[in-house]
Structures
1.
Amino acid sequence: MLLKPHVAINVKDLNKSVVFYTQLFGVEPVKVRPGYAKFDLEQPALNFTLNEGGEVSGGLNHLGIQVKSTEDVLATKERLQKEGLTTFDDMNTTCCYARQDKIWVTSPDGHRWEVFTVLADSEDKSNESPVCCTLDESKQTETDCGCS
């Protein structure tokens, strides 16, 4: 039995979003139609679709991709930066009861993506504030996040 999660998000500009997600995932979409694009990913196993229009922000907090190691986080950071995307480091942070190394990247519609690895379990939910996943715009870094 194949188990592949499906995530569908609304976007404002399909063309800009297809470029961003092609860069983020490192693969081209398998289907593009007017107002619609589909990525069928093997790693991570995910059926991910973009739908142009509708409510973009909704109640979505953030999205993430868990990788095996800090080296994988840093390799992803390097790849994304080569693609021209801006990344933000959030290394050795404690959130959602785990110590993690992660980076962040934001889509054209403001969807925040983390690429992270779990370093260790923790008794603390966060080390910065009770607010989960709050972006400190002035520092252009994630100050507290996880919720993964």
2.
Amino acid sequence: MLEARPAFVSRQRYNRDFLLINDLDTETPRHDRAWLAWLILLVVVSLAACGVMTMLNAALSGAALMILSGCCSAGQAQKAVDVPVILTIAASFALGAALEETGAATFLAGTIMGLSQGHVLLSILMVYFAVSVLTEVVTNNAAAVLVIPVVLSMTTVMGVPAEPFVIAVMMAASASFATPLGYQTNMMVFGPGGYRFADFLRVGLPMNIFIGLLTVLVIGLVYGISFY
């Protein structure tokens, strides 16, 4: 990523030394107000952590304070909102609710429990790789939201905490290496780098498996879940 004046793009657009992937229109940050931005962040986290406000209300209050205090402009705040991602998450919540209401989440949870024979760590592993496959096809946000109802149904039936499963979902949704469709950065380098689909499979698939096994291993150690 290179920060330059607008004229740089027009001068270097056809230069073989630079490859323009995306032109970012950014404003110069106000470094003199960095201390105030840190203070607002500390207050927001403290209010949410102490239960004074919900995370949503604390975050919205912090965003409003950032604009009112001049730490960022309204234009910067507007550009920071990724509308397609917001719409995707909203649609995913609707699909997640449909999975719960129709009983599909319970059915899928029961299927995973049956295959894992009630073994908690094996269930976490299966959930991880289910999310990993989904996130290579749809967005990581959608994959996480779709699987969360299944996870909650499963943990309720098994009588175990949902936190280890949720952490597995978070990691699986973030580890998208096997296809160029898995994440935006994969697609950004796909064309300019001259890669093929098989290149991602050859390198990314073993990486997905390695990260998945390592994640489940750490979850088992941290939460004291038996491997037997």
